[in-house]
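Work Package 4 report. The design task specified in the project plan requires that, given a folded chain encoded as structure tokens, an amino acid be chosen for each position. We show below one input record used in the internal validation round.
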């Protein structure tokens, strides 16, 4: 059991190191979004939800020609539960487009939106 135990311990250690690197990277990415929101470096769009679609695990909609998509398989985009928005709902969205796609920073639905 000596060599097998060493191999298993090494693999567990390697997995733990990889996991820590991935978590650190994810926190670094999210920090940019938090800083953008705190510093006011975001855009706001208000209006009615248009072109809502929900296919499999992906939900997409647009508000005044700005398209927002998210899938349940992508942990970076778990900003709101699927089915929360509906076509025609009044929304106010604060978003950042640091990356190639708009990332929702704050979503207000219904009575709170103007």
């Amino acid at each position: 059991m000596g060599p097998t135990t060493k191999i298993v311990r090494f693999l567990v250690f390697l997995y733990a190191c990889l996991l820590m690197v991935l978590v650190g990277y994810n926190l670094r990415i999210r920090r940019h979004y938090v800083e953008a929101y705190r510093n006011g470096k975001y855009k706001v769009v208000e209006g009615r939800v248009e072109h809502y679609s929900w296919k499999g695990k992906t939900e997409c909609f647009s508000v005044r020609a700005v398209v927002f998509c998210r899938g349940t398989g992508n942990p970076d985009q778990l900003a709101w539960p699927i089915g929360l928005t509906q076509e025609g709902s009044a929304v106010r969205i604060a978003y950042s487009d640091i990356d190639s796609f708009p990332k929702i920073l704050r979503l207000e639905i219904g009575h709170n939106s103007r």
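The chain has two domains: 1-41, 43-112. Validation will be extended to a larger panel in the next phase.
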